[in-house]
């Protein structure tokens, strides 16, 4: 038997488990929010830090304490700090232990090419004799001794775990599964999501928990249910054999006291045409609470049924205590790409604010069945949902504005309007709009969630996929030409001969596919990362540029890789055995599976980040006690349209940015233009700001050492243009980790 509570279904025995969890505590944190040993500060991903030295009154006295140069600009790593040691990434993908007071190098593990881009995990045994760093390297899971910097070779099989295994698919068909996020630790378990890719036949994004000592797989939560499991009937029969995605590629949060992990799950594949996955598609686009010890589902809520717009749950669930109608409620809140906030009782999953299922338009695509209703929370949205003549960017030159007036006349813009091959739709927000990874934080005891958001539309039009007739099919050529003309031509030239950017002529002959993929997805120099380009488009583009992308699930360290200067103790991580069964990605439906006759795809349509009027990016305080937005502040500097006007914010101004919330009432936030702010938590007033020498594209961190409080920012990218290039100004700091503190008295 099952009981139902507002979109969440429970077996009756689980209700007893939930009631038990309400009244018990499995683990009490010794020093809540006083360390930064996890990616988001602590397992709850609140980015909240409890210290008293830096206050509203003295924050404007902050100064640079020390800088550690990274030696490279391809770095989006968020440092963690354990006692007096800071762990960073630098010197061409080397993991480095630093003295957190001085920045002096303690050890270097060099040449970890393909290490998790965003951060790592730290774990120690109760007696503190075993201290280890857990991370993914390409498609493997590895461990390094945190004291010595050397690989732990009895972890997994010969020092690593093959993450392609255990997903119910042939491992040789899985090209991409490593998550860009480090996962989250609970006791002796690493709870890990994945980045599956977003094409047809991508692997499933099942959540897995590994023992941090042995590397053993302890549990798996099937995000695409299998026969006999709850939610299986929300997909076509046997869809689990070919459907993919539905993954936690972003930040998983854990209530350590209760032992509950909150999984923000993403879209099913293919994202924009779902004729082969008819149904509501649980647990895609769902917030799922599971027992962190066993992976058993406790409750779930699906924030979007049968997603056709790539509206992943991409930001960290925030664990806060709210006051409602005279009651104190431990809650979990989630902010979405489409600008909605959902708030639930942390234990039961009951919505704290009403949610209504509202009707939306059907699809006109063959075989497609858009879900007729979608859940809309009663809380105010923090983004707009339409592009029209009235809200077009007023700073556009007349030629661009008139072109868009004409374009709007033949396109459609409406929330949850299904993509079509008959006309263009303009989704507002788009795939990168609203709140994304790193863009939420919380003050746990006060019931306030802080959100970074951007007004960023996507343009979609479906095109039929033609079967490949040769190595690079006409469909591939069309896809690549569209991608190049919309995102590359302005810098690399009409004929790829170069201009503002370097020449791309035959670049595939002298650049490996792995390196090419890293540059396209993550950016380099003034080039921003194209994070939503899928694997097939990347391979087609590489072929178009003269390359030959060979599928290689693990990148072996080459003997010629250089060893950086400094206290190098090891290189390359655990040696990976040659893969004897390296096959091709899955391309066909399994025998007997019913599926549509045709497939359709669309570009991500991300070439207009400033399509509507400003502000384009903001930080806001969301009061979850009252269900109101307390304040909203534009952030970032735009040099193209707003000419540096701070009231306008910046296009893509909060992308890859982050926050730190302090117990003294401050919100530290980074933004485009190398901006670093300190806002008053209560009013949004800017109490301090600085312009760093380089852009930050990582989460800031905070720590205390010998009673002194430090803020560290990874500032090593350079996305400036013209006079906004701070790295060229006198006195500019080198690209690297910048540590701020109050001056010594």
What does this protein structure show overall?
With 745 residues, the chain is mostly beta strands. The protein is built from 6 helices and 46 strands. A 5-stranded mixed sheet has the order 3-39-40-41-42, with no helix packed on it. Strands 4, 43, 44, 45 and 46 form a 5-stranded antiparallel sheet that branches. The longest helix has 14 residues, at 474-487.
List the helices and strands and how they pair.
Layout: E1 2-5, E2 8-11, H1 12-22, E3 48-49, E4 63-69, E5 80-82, E6 85-90, E7 94-99, E8 105-110, E9 121-124, E10 131-137, E11 140-145, E12 160-162, E13 184-186, E14 189-192, E15 207-211, E16 217-221, E17 244-245, E18 253-255, E19 260-264, E20 268-269, E21 286-291, E22 297-302, E23 318-324, E24 327-335, E25 341-345, E26 355-359, E27 373-377, H2 398-410, E28 425-427, E29 440-443, E30 448-454, E31 458-460, E32 463-464, H3 474-487, H4 489-492, H5 513-522, E33 523-524, E34 527-528, H6 535-544, E35 568-571, E36 600-601, E37 617-623, E38 628-634, E39 659-662, E40 666-671, E41 675-680, E42 686-691, E43 695-696, E44 701-705, E45 708-717, E46 736-741
Parallel strand pairs: 3-39, 8-35
Antiparallel strand pairs: 1-2, 4-46, 5-6, 6-7, 7-8, 9-10, 10-11, 11-12, 13-14, 14-15, 15-16, 17-20, 18-19, 19-21, 21-22, 23-24, 24-25, 26-27, 28-31, 29-30, 30-37, 32-36, 33-34, 37-38, 39-40, 40-41, 41-42, 43-45, 44-45, 45-46
Helix pairs in contact: 3-6
């Amino acid at each position: 038997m099952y009981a139902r509570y507002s979109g969440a279904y429970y077996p009756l025995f689980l209700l007893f488990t939930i009631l038990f969890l309400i009244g018990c505590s499995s683990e009490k944190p010794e020093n809540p929010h006083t360390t930064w040993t996890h990616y988001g500060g602590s397992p709850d991903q609140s980015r909240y830090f409890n210290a008293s030295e830096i206050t509203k009154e003295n924050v404007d006295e902050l100064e640079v304490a020390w800088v550690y140069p990274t030696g490279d600009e391809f770095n989006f790593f968020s440092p963690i700090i354990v006692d007096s040691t800071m762990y960073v990434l630098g010197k061409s993908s080397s993991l480095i232990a630093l003295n957190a007071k001085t920045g002096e190098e303690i050890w270097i593990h060099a040449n970890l090419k393909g290490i998790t881009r965003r951060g790592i995990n730290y774990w120690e045994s109760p007696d503190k004799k075993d201290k280890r760093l857990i991370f993914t390297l390409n498609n493997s899971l590895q461990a390094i001794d945190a004291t010595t910097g050397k690989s732990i070779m009895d972890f997994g099989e010969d020092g690593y775990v093959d993450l392609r295994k255990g997903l119910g698919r042939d491992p040789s068909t899985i090209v991409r599964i490593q998550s860009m996020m480090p996962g989250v630790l609970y006791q002796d378990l690493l709870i890990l999501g994945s980045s599956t890719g977003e094409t047809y036949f991508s692997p499933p994004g099942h959540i897995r928990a590994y023992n941090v000592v042995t590397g053993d797989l302890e549990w798996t939560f099937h995000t695409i249910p299998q026969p006999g499991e709850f939610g299986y009937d929300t997909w076509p029969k046997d869809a689990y054999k070919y459907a993919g995605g539905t993954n936690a590629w972003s930040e998983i949060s854990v209530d350590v006291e209760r032992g509950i992990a909150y999984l923000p799950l993403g879209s099913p594949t293919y994202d924009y045409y779902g004729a082969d996955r008819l149904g509501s598609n649980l647990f895609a686009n769902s917030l799922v609470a599971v027992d962190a010890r066993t992976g058993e589902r406790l409750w779930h809520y699906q924030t979007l049924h049968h997603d056709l717009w790539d509206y992943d749950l991409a930001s960290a669930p925030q664990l806060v205590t709210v006051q409602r109608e005279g009651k104190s409620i431990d809650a979990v809140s989630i902010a979405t790409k489409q600008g909605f906030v959902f708030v639930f009782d942390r234990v039961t999953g009951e919505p704290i604010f009403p949610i209504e299922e509202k009707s939306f338009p059907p699809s006109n695509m063959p075989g497609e069945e858009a879900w007729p209703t979608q859940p809309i929370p009663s809380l105010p949205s923090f983004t707009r949902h339409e592009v029209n003549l009235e809200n077009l960017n007023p700073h556009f030159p007349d030629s661009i504005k008139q072109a868009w007036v004409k374009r709007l006349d033949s396109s459609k813009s409406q929330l949850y309007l299904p993509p079509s091959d008959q006309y263009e739709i303009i989704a507002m927000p788009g795939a990168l709009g609203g709140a994304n990874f790193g863009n939420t934080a919380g003050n746990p005891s006060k019931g306030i969630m802080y959100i970074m958001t951007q007004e960023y539309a996507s343009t979609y039009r479906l095109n039929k996929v033609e079967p490949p007739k040769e190595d690079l099919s006409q469909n591939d050529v069309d896809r690549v030409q569209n991608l190049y003309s919309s995102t590359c031509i302005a810098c690399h030239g009409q004929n790829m001969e170069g201009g503002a950017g370097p020449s791309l002529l035959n670049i595939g002959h002298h650049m490996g596919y792995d390196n090419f993929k890293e540059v396209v997805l993550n950016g380099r120099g003034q080039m921003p990362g194209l994070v939503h380009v899928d694997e097939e488009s990347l391979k087609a583009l590489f072929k178009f540029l003269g390359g030959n992308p060979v599928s290689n699930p693990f990148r072996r360290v080459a003997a010629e890789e250089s060893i950086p200067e400094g206290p190098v103790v090891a290189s390359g991580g655990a040696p990976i055995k040659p893969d004897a069964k390296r096959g091709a990605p899955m391309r066909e439906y399994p025998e007997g599976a019913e599926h549509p006759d045709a497939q359709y795809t669309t570009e991500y349509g991300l070439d207009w980040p400033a399509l509507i009027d400003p502000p384009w990016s903001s930080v806001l305080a969301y009061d979850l006690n009252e269900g109101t937005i307390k304040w909203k502040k534009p952030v970032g500097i735009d040099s193209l349209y707003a000419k540096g006007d701070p009231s306008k914010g910046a296009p893509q101004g909060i992308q890859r940015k982050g926050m730190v919330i302090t117990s003294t009432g401050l919100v530290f936030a980074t933004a485009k233009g190398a901006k670093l702010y300190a806002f008053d938590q209560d009013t949004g007033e800017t109490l301090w700001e600085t312009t760093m020498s380089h852009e930050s594209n990582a989460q800031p961190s905070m720590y205390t050492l010998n009673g002194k409080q430090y803020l560290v920012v990874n500032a090593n990218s350079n996305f400036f243009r013209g006079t906004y290039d701070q790295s060229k100004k006198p006195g500019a700091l080198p690209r690297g980790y910048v540590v701020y503190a109050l001056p010594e008295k």
